[in-house]
Amino acid sequence: MNFTDPFHDEHGDSLHEECGVFGAINAADASALTALGLHALQHRGQEAAGITSFNGEEFFSRRGLGHVAENFSSSDAIAEMPGFMAAGHVRYSTTGGAGLRNVQPLYADLAAGGFAVAHNGNISNALTLRNDLVRRGAIFQSTSDTEVIIHLVATSRYPTMIDRLVDALRMVEGAYSLIVMTPEGMIACRDPLGIRPLVMGRIGDSIIFASESVAFDVIGAELIREVEPGELIRADFKGNVESLHPFGRHAPRPCIFEHVYFSRPDSIFGGKSVYSVRKEIGAQLAIESPADVDLVIPVPDSGVPAAIGYAQQSGVPFELGIIRSHYVGRTFIQPSDGARNSSVKRKHNANRALVEGKRIVLIDDSIVRGTTSLKIVEMMREAGAKEVHFRVASPPTAHSCFYGVDTPERSKLLAARMELEPMRAFIKADSLAFVSIDGLYRAVGQEQRKAACPQFCDACFTGDYPTSLSDLAAREAKDAQLSFDKVA
Ligand code: AMP
Predict the structure, then answer these.
(1) Mean pLDDT of all residues in 66-84
(2) CB 384 near ligand 1, within 6 Å
(3) Is 302 a pocket residue for ligand 1 (Cβ < 6 Å)?
(4) Spatial separation of the C-alpha atoms in residues 256 and 459, rounded to whole Å
(5) 338 pLDDT exceeds 60?
(6) Which of 201, 209, 278, 441 is most buried by its number of CB atoms within 10 A?
(7) pLDDT band at residue 95, thresholds of 50, 70 and 90?
(8) Positions marked active-site
């Protein structure tokens, strides 16, 4: 741990956030709509939830740790946030001690008026910017990278809020889908490469923004379109909606991991059904890496669509060989390896009557540390499976994400530490295969990955990061200097 780095936690993992954002303007019940929308985005973050509203005069805010239902179920809670504009946020970070101060939307009273922001993504030069701002006298209230945006807006010399925001965002590198509220209205924007998702919808006269289209289904809104990479959409209280492209046009690099794991399967991302893409990844996997088995078994829930695709392509029956308890939290969130291991067992149970004496192939969306896969393979063997093969509906995750998907530091990624055969031995499977990167691209409708200009951000698989990573470079330079000092 680097104790001078506020974006690092005590486990040595950086504070990468997985988040969901939602915004509604010109809606009589803006906070209630936002609470419903956040329910549909709950899978994007379970650590905390917050809503900020505006009634034409004042901003109101309620933020809490835990799930949306724990914080926003009662009409009293919603009544605390009156007004016809609201923005909400669900958050999940790897840090245990993140606390309330990091829960979004963040709000500040600026010289130009109130400013609230909800952010999905990760700013890869946040620490560099923050250090500079602190040197110039800024006092930070949180350890969230999002607060950097507020300080940059506050200190910008441009006269209007939109110009200040653009000025601030020009200094920021990395991934951001933002919903901003000011007394003039709402601004939704996506980073120039469109790494994290953001969609625009409509219900009656209200304009809605959300991380995923599934949030519109829940409130009965119509999906209009995606917010384009690098686009700022400004919506005011008179019903005007204006699109700006202040950063020029770049070849987009949306996150391919949204298709693999992160988005809900009933969402539309990049104009494609996430469910269909996942099934197609499974089909590609079956073509590339068939298994001579009796049953195709998904690792629930994230492996289900790919397993259906694998089964349909291969003609091998699809069966539920693992039953999942829906009352245990996600295994990934547990801070220590011990806690993570025990919760895998509480979460999944073998369907012994089905798998006993069978040759099976397990399908999961990804292997990160390998904890889940090892436990599940062992569980299947204990339940009497004769052969246990493993197929993964993504290429090996060998690189950390710096753009807002929570992945552990690189040294903890199984694929960063091992080649294929040692990985197979580690998870104790009879065989192991990952879909190829081109297979993944075929599944999302591309002929192949264009190496010179990839159509997606796939850095977690390829190490090809589409932006500079100033904080990482600064940290590496510092570490190199430290070891140089030691030697010298
Ligand atoms: P692991 O046990 O560390 O190998 O984690 C693999 C499991 O975590 C897979 O079943 C995935 O569905 C799930 N997973 C992959 N990436 C993430 C993520 N960023 N956040 C939460 N869960 C994830």
Answers:
(1) 94
(2) no
(3) yes
(4) 9
(5) no
(6) 209
(7) very low
(8) 19
Those residues whose C-beta lies under 8 Å from the C-beta of residue 197, and which sit 6 or more positions away, are 120, 177, 211, 212, 226, 254, 255, 258, 263, 269
* Stretch 198-203: mean pLDDT: 98
Domains, the chain, in order of start with CATH, read: 16-253 (3.60.20.10), 279-444 (3.40.50.2020)
Angstrom CA distances, 137 to 132, 133, 149, 155, 339, stand at: 9, 6, 15, 11, 41
Tell which atom from ligand 1 comes closest to the C-alpha of 374.
2
Confidence check: pLDDT of 96 > 50: no
More confident residue, 96 or 184: 184
How far is Cα 299 from Cα 84, in angstroms, rounded to an integer? 43
Distance between Cα 139 and ligand 1 center (Å): 36
Among 193, 172, 304, CA closest to 248: 193
Tell me what pLDDT residue 478 has.
84
> What's the CA-to-centroid distance between 363 and ligand 1, angstroms?
13
Sign of the dihedral defined by the CA atoms of residues 235, 238, 242, 246, in that order? negative
Q: What percent of the chain has pLDDT over 70?
A: 91
Give the orientation angle of helix 146-155 with respect to helix 126-135, to 10 degrees: 40
Residue 1 pLDDT exceeds 50:
no
Average pLDDT, stretch 107-117?
Answer: 95
- Does the C-beta of 261 come closer than 6 Å to ligand 1? yes
